[in-house]
Design a protein that fits this description.
The chain is globular. It has 2 domains: 233 residues, SGNH hydrolase (Rossmann fold, 3-Layer(aba) Sandwich), CATH 3.40.50.1110; 111 residues, Jelly Rolls, CATH 2.60.120. The protein is α+β, with helices and mostly antiparallel strands. The protein is built from 8 helices and 15 strands.
């Protein structure tokens, strides 16, 4: 089913016709599928190797599920807590996946970050209040995240709004006017694996007629981020616009999402660093595989999806994995895609992995507003988040 690409508006007429007939669209235009702005090499500056989940964290997660209080070990040292996949380097870190960032706690009046960044835009949250969007530019610069605060304890959060193909964020230092505190590990953690829908592509756009831009991408309003805040969980998102299970948007087969899943820095093959274990993983892939003619077969999709589920289980041994395609794939494409994915779930059950299930985050009927290039708008993302919260409550008791 053709749809609007961020690189070409050619299929618009076909897309509108498809929407009228099927009440759905693929909505996964790719501003730069597979392209990487640069390859600066991987850095693993002392963080836990990405291939080895932290055993103590896994044990703590299992005991949380069982309602058992556990000794989490020594308290964290004063300093920022990096959110999402990251590679520690010196006094700072590198990260690039959408929604990755940092949290700082301090007693004082101001906090500044020095970083070399290509992400363009960040969400800043001060004491649970979202601040005006932080626009950044290339080169090493110091940015004030908060100033003029009462001399008291504060929590300041900084999150990338944009995707990894823009390039990595390199945090060099954090400075406070006051005393830096420690940020405790959250009790819950989620990982989202997806495409443009999970990244927040176009969510800040006026309507479906705008094209992709860094200004209109906003991961903070994507369903995963909204749901994570609702359940008090830390979120790590692994999402890239245009990516699929086998086919990327437009039948491109170069580096579909399963080949990127192990990366700590999105555009850097082989990059390593810190990938923390999580309690729940949501996989929202498949829309791009069926975005144009020449759809993949079940013999292609199901084994590739099984492989991804195996990779997820290797990283997150105790997580419950929720699989979905939401909310834009409709009609026969949606039915076939779901059947292929459910076959992969059944294969994992047969292998003894019963903590994998299908979750319905809403079909095309849930769409009430549009962002750029026929992507879900903020209200639709929020509706998806509400369904995800319900699923997490049902599966994990959250």
């Amino acid at each position: 089913m053709p749809l609007l690409s961020a690189r070409s508006l050619g299929p618009l007429g076909v897309l509108v016709a498809s929407l009228l007939v099927a009440t759905g669209c693929d909505g996964a235009g790719d501003p730069d599928a597979g392209g990487a702005p640069r390859d600066a090499g991987a850095i693993d500056g002392g963080g836990r190797d990405a291939a080895t989940p932290d055993a103590a964290a896994r044990d703590a997660s299992s005991e949380r599920d069982a309602g058992v209080e556990t000794d989490a070990g020594p308290p964290p040292a004063p300093g920022p807590r990096y959110v999402g996949r990251h590679a520690v380097s010196g006094d700072g870190a590198r990260f690039s996946w959408p929604g990755s960032g940092l949290v700082v706690r301090f007693r004082g009046t101001a906090v500044r970050v020095t970083m070399n960044d290509a992400a363009r835009f960040f969400t800043v949250v001060v004491d649970s209040e979202v601040q005006p969007t932080l626009a950044v530019s290339g080169g090493t610069r110091t940015y004030t995240l908060a100033s003029g605060l009462p001399d008291a304890e504060h929590t300041v959060e900084l999150y990338r709004r944009t995707e990894g193909f823009f390039g990595a964020t390199v945090v060099e230092s954090i400075e406070v006017d006051g005393e830096l505190g420690a940020v405790p590990a959250p009790a819950r953690a989620i990982e989202i694996i997806g495409d443009s829908i999970s990244a927040g592509y176009g969510v800040d756009g006026a309507d479906q007629h705008c094209s992709f831009s860094a200004e209109t991408e906003n991961h903070y309003l994507a369903y995963g981020a909204v749901a994570a805040r609702a359940v008090g969980a830390e979120l790590s998102t692994v999402a890239w616009s245009g990516k699929g299970i086998v086919h990327n948007y437009g039948d491109d087969r170069v580096e579909p999402m399963p080949t990127l899943y192990d990366r700590v820095i999105a555009a850097e093959a082989g990059s390593t660093g810190t990938i923390r274990p999580v309690d729940a993983v949501v996989i929202n892939l498949g829309t791009n595989d069926f975005s144009t003619d020449g759809d993949p077969t079940g013999d292609e999709v199901t084994p590739a999806y099984v492989g991804l589920l195996e990779a997820v289980r290797a990283r997150h041994p105790d997580a419950h994995v929720l699989c979905t395609i939401a909310p834009l794939l409709a009609g026969g494409d949606g039915t076939r895609a779901r059947s292929y994915i459910e076959a992969a779930i059944a294969a994992r059950h047969a292998a003894g992995d019963l903590r994998v299930s299908w979750v319905d985050l809403g079909a095309s009927s849930i769409v009430t507003d549009w962002g750029c290039d026929w992507h879900p708008g903020a209200r639709t993302q929020a509706a998806m988040a509400a369904r995800l919260v319900s699923a997490l409550e049902a599966e994990l008791g959250w």
